[in-house]
């Protein structure tokens, strides 16, 4: 760490965290919180100036209006027992009744918001300018020839239940710049579709409440029309009775990292090759490989006020690919970074294309670029805590392809935005982002930079 950062690094053991209140256009209002317990040691510790902390234990609980819940527990120990090893362990559980599915394959990036116009009888197909208008149209219930009311409210949704357990060790070389990582991941998944179920609530075009049946959803249609067979996808089995499909994976990564302070770097380079492998001999129900290449470049353009305030450029470029004879389809939802549990969710939502709906674009090959101009503008102390506030304009863009050999520079999707950041005792970054795309705008609140 640079000396001007060390001046404000807190010694000893301390807790940070906040209650969180969010609004999500998919899931409504949500409430919960994050708690971080840090063990920093003191300035006599030989690793005090090399690590953001000696041990960190974190927990998260969140519940949304739609019933989505998430529990998370993480442990991280750089240079554990004063050795060259780092140990990480994660346990995550979540259930989401409105997980998003907007189609799979390169065609999903070309697919506009089109559906039969339900506002006027016989109006035919229509293209909607925003996700909100599109979903309002889906929600309208119509009568079939037999007089049964039917709705497409859940056309781009399914029910998701997951448990993730991750154990990862890493060995540092070259004075900490080179890291070799390997570990094991156990993933338990269960999913349900809405087709044929009675809708929770439904309304006709005049706003009158009716009892309706959910039509087949997009995920159910693409399972049957050959799309999933073409890409060797499986795992959407409604096995019921509280049982889960099991994905057993070995994971590894090679990382070169010269960032000066991991949670909120002011300069440095981060390069990663990550790989995951799943096969029946590991006890897995699936058989596939998954890799990701990513590079991050961070440099400070201007400093002032004893180096505590600054303007920093941060950029990320990532490429991911999944292949194999039997792929758990949910593996398409994230890029395989071993630097953090769960990888990088794509392509849309708070960690990738922030102006587009979560999981808006997916395929076997995914490319992503994030560009941010991070600033620290106002430094202050309150209640013996150190804070620094700043703003972060950003631009995200990316694309999906049906294979590495199908990549091109045509029809990439991009979205600009503006964020606010609050650095709390340096190691905790509170993040608020607003992003806009041709399909609408979104607001996100959370912890830590997106990279």
Quick recap:
The chain is mainly beta and 451 residues long. Helix content is 6%, strand content 53%.
Description:
There is one protein chain. The chain is mainly β. 6% of the residues lie in helices and 53% in strands. The chain has five helices and 27 strands. The protein has helices spanning 3-6, 106-110, 131-138, 218-224, 227-230, and strands spanning 13-24, 28-39, 55-64, 69-77, 85-100, 114-116, 125-127, 142-143, 149-151, 157-173, 178-192, 202-203, 209-210, 213-214, 233-234, 245-257, 268-278, 287-304, 309-328, 334-335, 344-345, 365-376, 378-382, 385-401, 413-424, 428-437, 440-447. The strands form five sheets. It has an 18-stranded mixed beta sheet that branches. A hairpin with a 3-residue loop joins strand 25 and strand 26.
């Amino acid at each position: 760490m640079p000396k001007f950062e060390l001046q404000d690094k807190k010694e000893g053991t301390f807790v940070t965290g906040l209650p969180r209140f969010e609004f999500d256009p998919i899931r409504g209002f949500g409430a919960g919180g994050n708690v971080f317990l840090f063990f920093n040691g003191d300035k006599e510790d030989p690793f005090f100036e090399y690590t953001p902390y000696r041990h960190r234990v974190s927990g998260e609980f969140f519940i949304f209006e739609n019933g989505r819940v998430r529990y998370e527990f993480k442990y991280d120990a750089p240079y554990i027992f004063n050795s060259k090893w780092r140990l990480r362990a994660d346990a995550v559980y979540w259930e989401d009744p409105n997980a998003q599915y907007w189609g799979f394959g390169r065609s999903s990036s070309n697919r506009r918001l089109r559906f039969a116009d339900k506002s006027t009888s016989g109006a035919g197909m229509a293209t909607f300018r925003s996700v909100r208008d599109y979903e309002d149209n889906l929600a309208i219930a119509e009568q079939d020839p037999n007089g049964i009311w039917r709705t497409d409210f859940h056309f781009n949704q399914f029910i998701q239940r997951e448990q993730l357990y991750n154990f990862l060790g890493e060995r540092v070389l070259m004075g900490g710049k080179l890291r070799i990582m390997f570990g094991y991941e156990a993933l338990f998944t269960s999913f349900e579709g809405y087709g044929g179920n009675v809708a929770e609530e439904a309304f006709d075009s005049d706003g009158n409440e009716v009892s309706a049946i959910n039509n087949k959803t997009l995920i159910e249609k693409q399972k049957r029309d050959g799309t999933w067979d073409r890409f060797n996808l499986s795992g959407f089995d409604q096995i019921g009775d509280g049982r889960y499909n099991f994905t057993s994976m070995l994971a590894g990564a090679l990382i070169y990292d010269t960032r000066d302070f991991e949670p909120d770097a002011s300069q440095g380079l981060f390069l990663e090759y990550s790989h995951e492998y799943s096969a029946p001999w590991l006890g897995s129900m699936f058989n596939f490989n998954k890799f990701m290449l990513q590079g991050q470049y961070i440099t400070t353009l201007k400093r002032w006020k004893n180096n505590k305030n600054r303007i920093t450029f941060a950029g990320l470029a990532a490429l991911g690919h999944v292949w194999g004879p039997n792929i758990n389809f949910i593996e398409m939802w994230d890029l395989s970074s071993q630097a953090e549990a769960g990888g990088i969710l794509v392509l849309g939502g708070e960690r990738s294309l922030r102006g587009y709906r979560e999981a808006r674009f997916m395929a076997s090959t995914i490319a992503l670029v994030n560009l941010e101009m991070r600033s620290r503008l106002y430094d202050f102390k309150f209640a013996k805590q150190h804070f620094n506030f700043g703003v972060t304009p950003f631009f995200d863009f990316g694309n999906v392809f049906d294979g590495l050999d199908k990549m091109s520079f045509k029809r990439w999707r991009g979205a600009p935005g503006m964020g606010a950041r609050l650095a709390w005792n340096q190691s905790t970054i509170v993040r608020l982002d607003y992003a806009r795309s041709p399909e609408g705008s979104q607001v996100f609140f959370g912890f830590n930079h997106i990279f």
